[in-house]
Amino acid sequence: MDLEDKYNELQVSPFNIPFLRDLGIKAVAIVNFDILYGPVCYLKELSNSSFSEKLKKVDTLAELYTGFARTEIDVITTLDEKVIVSSYTEKLETSEVTSLLFLVCVLSADTEKLVQYCRSLTKRIRGDPERFNSALSFIIEQERKKSHALIIERNGTRIKGLNINDESIVSGNEFLNFNGFLFIDYNRAEVDGRFFPKRINEKKVDFRALVKFIDTQKNEAELSFGELITLYYKGLELLIYLHNSGAIMVGTKKMRSRINYNFINKWFFNFFDVYLDVHGIPEEKGTLETLKYLDREISGEPKRFIISELIDLMINSEKSTPELLVKPSSIKKRGWISLRTEYELFLEYLELFDGSLSIYKISQEMSVPLSKVVEFIIFLKSRNLLEVYKKKR
Question: Per-residue pLDDT tens for 313-328?
């Protein structure tokens, strides 16, 4: 067998990679040992790893068989990383095949959880690298079900989620798991840091140094469009999302929070897609309201289609003014059932939609969520009863 036949890339869906990164995994490897053909390695690198570099040497593969195939070792700790290992052996008619699964992770990773995952994956793939991605998807799906199965009550509020510890919840409320957000638009050469913490560990944030760090790490990790990675910078855990335009959205997670990756990819995609398309710089209050709206809609109903126009109006709610194209009395005479059942309150405030108030101001006057006002606007706009104008700066 040629040297190039000894190594193959382990196929992992880009939608599953964020889950691995959040666990602190730097590389995944499956090494199969056949008495007749020798070792074959299937490797997926998520970031630089000293252990994965050793795996690229054939001599090391042989040593692994000697060291781990017949032992019960679960965890190896080196100076800069941990390696979780699990083995599987299958006896054939003419030979015996032993498979080792390695999860290479950062030193701070949750070892107990990774050992469980490693054993579960080993049992499911049974030495077949082509089964790895489906086995990983199964684990992710099980975690998602757990997050919906348990009800946590905190401060009088009932929340669907998985209780990790006293200060950590996996839930659909992804917005609550972040300290702030940073947007880097390379095409416009703009950095929007209004939603990002201004101080870290009592020190002022150097945005120039931060952006340089993110750019370097992004290139090193070979981040693909629509993919999420996790980085650590001066005490902050950063979630990096690359849009297909080349722009980057950075979320800084709160300590001990857990992000539900089954929702967060869509969450980032829908919001960022519209954020980049809107003209000018979105207003702060509208942007934050949009993020909260996505929490409710995507996390609660992940299959629901999010209308881009709705998110656009929310982001620009402070500079967009809706104006009726007909008299309020004309709308009140309409016999639409949905108008009476879903928007009855709005019939009392139609005079506010005269083009003088912003969408955000109307929501304040009516004391209703911004998203509800936007939904009503789209309801009328789709029936040619209203138009929305954006104020020019």
Answer: 888 898 899 999 999 9
Rounded distance between C-alpha atoms, residue 133 and residue 224, angstroms: 18
Q: Are residues 356 and 275 in the same domain?
A: no
CATH number at residue 386: 1.10.10
281, 307, 333 — which closes off a domain?
A: 307
Give me the sign of the Cα torsion angle 64, 66, 72, 75: negative
Instruction: Please list the helix, strand and coil fractions of the chain in percent, rounded to the nearest 5, in that order.
Output: 40, 25, 30
Nearest to 234 by CA among 215, 209, 216: 209
Q: What's the domain range around 372?
A: 320-390
Mean pLDDT of the chain: 79
Which of 30-34, 218-222, 236-240 is the least confident region?
Answer: 218-222
CB atoms within 10 A of CB 19: 23
- Confirm whether 155 is domain-assigned: no
Cβ atoms 125, 28 nearer than 8 A: no
Same domain, 27 and 115: yes
Question: What is the model's pLDDT at position 6?
Answer: 81
Residues in contact with 276: Cβ distance below 8 Å, sequence separation at least 6, in sequence order: 185, 243, 245, 247
| Exposed / middle / buried, residue 145 (Cβ in 10 Å: 0-12, 13-18, 19+) | exposed
The confidence score (pLDDT) of residue 10 equals 92
pLDDT exceeds cutoff 50 at 150: no
Backbone dihedral angles phi then psi of residue 333, each to the nearest 5 degrees: -80, -10
Number of domains the chain is built from: 3
**Do 278 and 333 reside in the same domain of the chain?**
no
Q: Are residues 70 and 102 in the same domain?
A: yes
**Whether residue 325 sits in one domain with residue 300:** no
Is residue 178 within a helix (H) or strand (E), and if so which, with residue range?
strand 178-185
Q: Are 326 and 290 members of one domain? A: no
pLDDT, residue 356, reads 93
Q: Which of 122, 52, 45 is nearest to 90 (CA)?
A: 122
Q: Give the pLDDT score at 2.
A: 54
Determine phi and psi for 196, rounding to 5 degrees: -105, 145
